[in-house]
């Protein structure tokens, strides 16, 4: 018997080991790549029964994928169930977030300019999901007297008037989805009584005389010529002015330098106030 092994026989034995050695790292690399491509969802956590993921899907907690934390891709994406598309307010927090995530409803470039809070030092939302989750949770526009809701549709996601570079009325005109801005304004004033005060009377006083209170966060909606002219004659045109008594109309017997009969609005939203008054004007007041 020969003492030397056939070289070909040795090569056939070592070949599988050689292939196995190099196939393991390749397999691991493919596995790592697939893991990196997996999308992990962010979700709302407020509701007891439902939640919304950052893809715009709504589902119950038992349907969430345990690994990705995403809702199943079944059903409507960006669902606006129980939402008023004119006022952009919903009866459910989860569907408010879902509807808000629709790019057609919430332009990203505007949402990312909105401050999280009123202070100058407050930061801005980092994503549209952050904006929708935060905006739907608390909205001053849906509250009256600071302790009650105007209606069951109190989860609202509209761009607020204090957002940087975007005043509310301008945004409504540019991004109206359901009709002219006047229709949206009427929806935002639902539950509000528009009262014209007496000469020299503040809105606090005018509303109180009707057994109601002035709603300060609605003054900005009245502070434009198109709205003022619906309730006042504005015989002397509609002029920009400075003062805490706007929106208002100058009484006809006022001094000529005050533009008798003219309607007044202010470009400074921060000066709007329920307690402002002027002895030669009548105010347009939002009461509830």
UniProtKB/TrEMBL annotation:
Signal peptide range in chain numbering: 1-28
Membrane disposition: Single-pass membrane protein
GO terms of biological process kind: positive regulation of SREBP signaling pathway
InterPro entries in the cross-refs: SPRING1
A Pfam family that the UniProt record links to this protein: SPRING1
Keywords: Glycoprotein, Golgi apparatus, Membrane, Signal, Transmembrane, Transmembrane helix
Gene Ontology CC entries for this record: Golgi membrane
Subcellular location: Golgi apparatus membrane
PANTHER family named among the record's database cross-references: SREBP REGULATING GENE PROTEIN (PTHR13481:SF0)
Recorded family membership: Belongs to the SPRING family.
Official protein name in the record: SREBP regulating gene protein
Taxonomic lineage from the root: Eukaryota, Viridiplantae, Streptophyta, Embryophyta, Tracheophyta
Gene name tied to this protein: LOC105179656
